[in-house]
Amino acid sequence: MINRRLFVMGSTAWGMTGCALRHERTLDVAYVNLNAWTGVARTPTTDAIGIVGNKIAVLGQSAVESYRGPKTQIIDLGGAFVTPGLIDNHTHFLTGSSRLIQPDLLSATSRQDFAARLGKAARERPGKWILGGSWDEQRLGGDLPDKNWIDASTPNTPVAIPRTDLHMYLLNSEALKIAGITRDTPDVAGGVIGRDAQGEPNGILKDNARSLVRRVFPETSSADQNEIMRKGIEFALSQGFTQVHSLEQGWGNFDTARRLRENGETDLRYYCFTATKRWQKLAEIVAEEGRGDDWVRWGAVKAIYDGSLGSRTALFAEPYDDEPSQFGVRTLQKSVLQDLILGADKANLQVATHAIGDLANDEVLEIYKDVARMNGPRDRRFRIEHAQHLSQNAIKEIARQNVIASVQPYHAIDDGRWAEKRIGEARLQGTYAFRSLIDQGAVVTFGSDWPVAPLDAIQGLFAAVTRETIDGENPGGWIPNERIAIEQALSAYTVNNALAGFQDMKLGKIQPGFLADLTVFDRNVVQTKTSDMRKTKILKTIVNGRERYGV
Questions:
Q1: Cis upstream peptide for 133 (omega within 30°)
Q2: 405 — phi, psi (to 5°)?
Q3: At what angle do helices 486-493 and 457-466 cross, to 10 degrees?
Q4: Average pLDDT value for the chain
Q5: Hey, is 473 helix, strand or coil?
Q6: Is the confidence at residue 23, as pLDDT, over 80?
Q7: Which CATH number among 3.10.310.70, 3.30.413.10, 3.30.70.20, 3.90.1200.10 corresponds to the domain 103-214?
Q8: Quick one: which of 23, 14, 71, 89 has its CA closest to 510?
Q9: How far apart, in whole angstroms, are the C-alpha atoms of residue 281 and residue 358?
Q10: What helix, strand, coil percent values describe the chain, rounded to 5?
Q11: What pTM, to 2 d.p., does this model score?
Q12: Rounded to whole angstroms, what are the CA distances from 454 to 27, 100, 320, 460, 468?
């Protein structure tokens, strides 16, 4: 007999999507003694969560008591704080995973320390390419490094290491030699080859010029990629993430995630993007195989339209204050980008576009508007990745066009140390404009851009709520009017990220019928003082109803 009470949501019954449970069915797992933020406006909190299979079945202690049975596993969380499973909206996941086994260069405190760390890595793996970690000249005194910094410590080992924003490489002389880059090598459209006063390559490659060395990188075997991704999965789960959107430009992450899924090894959910220029191949895969499952999905593409602020390649309408000859770069022509997006959108693929400078964002919004008009209305959920420096009109237009602002809050407290030097005080209005976007009604989603920034939601929440720069120079917040409430920040990591990935009917909330993805914290971040927020620890990560990480 069907028990009709089971369709009623509330403290005394459960609801399941698309089916009725038999009256005699009991909970498989019950999490009790907890304080949960559900992401559901009408029922924002609960003190217990009951799970059947891989779905949330009931909420509230009384409901759990009503539907527990002799085989129900009762897990007492000791008053811990629980949220819907955290989702990171923007990672370069396979790249980030590979950095876990590379030397730590970002914490180097001087040129000498930087060179010594590379030298140690070169001695440990003689003759083999060093392709990470990453560096930030702002932490090394402010001057851009060149090959002379590292040649002596890496004489026979090729080095090609990315700046933290991934838009610039530093090469040593050995890598320049292998790549065939000389004073006679012409500049690349949409890129820059750094040169010294005599015109010789100095080891710096910006944006599209990076292709000159990438073409000679050693290939990584499928087995090695599998192992690298496994390390990344373990790390992401330890950080409380239940899903990542991976916006790699190649097929490496896509293929590796699919291989692990075939072997039942995922544990972490993936939404895999590939380059917009490859939309036709992806459309063929979708036509033949569909879009994957709830573990590994695809059907989205990403274009890169400009560079980064740190590399002075983000595209602005006015020149850089600290280099008046530079406006930034378009990594491809606007007409080419529009044709690519038009084709991908017509094929019913989701489109995301990297845009950082104000002019880049304005032009991407123009393209999105034209493409939507030409291809007609549908639920397309266009995304702008980063949306860092926006004109006041762009802030309104993002909301008006229902474009998703896919932003990374840690960048604000990192770039805030030096952004004014690049573009001046006036252009900071509209920079990392989280509050302004939300106030206009835009959907704002959060992530890390890992490995450009840490895969760390605690840091992201702190950044969004306080905007205190990492150098401690802005205790009241950098551009404090753009600070947001903690509940808004949590929504950006959960509810809104599920929407940005077309999963808002099954993920992103603690709600009966939704998949049982949960993140467990050691303190209630909604009530924690901001000064203590960064002390927060992840206790458990539950994906598909099963604990995948726990302490």
A1: yes
A2: -90, 105
A3: 140
A4: 94
A5: coil
A6: no
A7: 3.10.310.70
A8: 14
A9: 31
A10: 35, 25, 40
A11: 0.87
A12: 37, 11, 27, 9, 16
